[in-house]
Specification:
alpha+beta; Ku70, Chain: A, Domain 2; two-stranded antiparallel ribbon; about 20% strand
Length: about 350
């Protein structure tokens, strides 16, 4: 069981619910140590006195704020003293519709659990009330010498807590971005085609299908270097679309997203939609399916990785996001190796 990172009392009205807060996410980033080149020696950071150059133990370090002519020193206990009770209190001051909260305000998500079985009924009551009202409780609390603005929400069968940025922490985009377009007139034809592209690329939200491919490549690089092998370099970033070619780029994107060619599929639906409907009952159209006319590995080897990935998407190859170029060729040509890799990756 995970260790709680904060515990206290969540209050709404005159009702108090003892809760524990747990991390809802974890990082999968590869963490590197600092090593001196040419050796296996670790580089470590030390807290040193900048005047004497001597290392200072943690218990002798206090916080300080530069007041101009001197530093104002503050002890950790003094920070606790000015927030009596508040460091253990999560006070809901009101309930709002989360749809009214701009996404830029959201920061980090945590799970909330009752602090013991005795408080299960109160926990379930608040969860059900928030779920039926479709509201979130706005509250504040103090953790690690910092006050947080949060939203408590019912998600699934638990309560979640989302830390929010304060209003004065949100930057005005017009102050930050110097070349934001003003009132730009968009030709109706371009807008219509852009909407068609959005619709053609629309899909259900399945977060498990998305992978951090960069971290996967970092791990592959580490493994290759461990074995004395080399890895394929990534493709260059695509060039920016020329405004003159915008319409042709949009139309080509729509055609590609719909499968191939122009026009509608069965029932007047775009070809991509019609093909998706048929795919459930016609396994022979998929790579490796019965009677499939598979392209040869030789033909596929002439395509770029981006083109291979596009074909793999159309063919429904699982695990394609983590495949190498050779894996994609094998999977699309129907060989066992690519399929086995696809199953492992998924």
């Amino acid at each position: 069981m995970a260790r709680a990172i904060w515990s206290g009392s969540l209050s709404f009205g005159l009702v108090n619910l003892p809760v524990r807060m747990y991390a809802a996410t974890e990082s999968h980033t590869v963490h590197f140590h600092q090593i001196q080149r040419g050796t296996s020696d670790r580089i470590r950071n030390k807290r040193v006195n900048e005047r004497t150059g001597k290392e200072v133990p943690a218990e002798e370090i206090v916080k300080g704020v530069d007041a101009g002519d001197a530093y104002v020193l503050v002890e950790p206990e003094e920070l606790d003293d000015i927030a009596p009770g508040r460091s253990k209190a999560l006070e809901i001051s009101g309930f709002v519709d989360l749809d009214d909260v701009d996404p830029v305000y959201f920061d980090t998500t945590y799970y909330l659990g009752p602090r013991g079985k005795d408080y299960g009924k109160v926990y379930a009551l608040l969860h059900k009330a928030l779920k039926e009202s479709n509201k979130a409780g706005v509250a504040t609390f103090v953790m690690r010498h910092r006050e947080y603005l949060v939203a408590v929400q019912a998600e699934g069968d638990i309560l979640t807590l989302h830390t929010l940025h304060w209003a004065d922490e949100i930057r005005d985009p017009r102050d930050e971005i110097g070349d934001l377009p003003g009132r730009t007139k968009i030709p109706e034809r371009e807008l219509k085609t852009a909407v068609q592209l959005v619709e053609a690329l629309s899909t259900a939200w399945r977060p498990e299908e998305y992978h951090d491919t960069y971290q996967e490549k970092v791990r592959a690089l580490i493994e290759a270097k461990r074995k004395g092998e080399t890895v394929e370099k990534a493709q260059e970033a695509p060039e920016s679309t020329n405004v003159v070619d915008l319409m042709s780029a949009l139309q080509a994107s729509v055609d590609s997203a719909r499968g191939s060619g122009k026009g509608k599929g069965e029932g007047g639906k775009p070809k991509a939609v019609a093909a998706k409907r048929r795919s459930g009952s016609r396994s022979e159209n998929r790579p490796g399916g019965k009677g499939a006319g598979r392209p040869s590995a030789t033909d596929l080897s002439q395509l770029s990785k981006a083109e291979l990935y596009e074909r793999a998407t159309e063919a429904g190859v699982q695990g394609r996001s983590s495949m190498t170029r050779d894996d994609l060729v094998e999977a699309l040509s129907g060989s066992g190796g690519g399929r086995n890799r696809a199953k492992k990756a998924s």
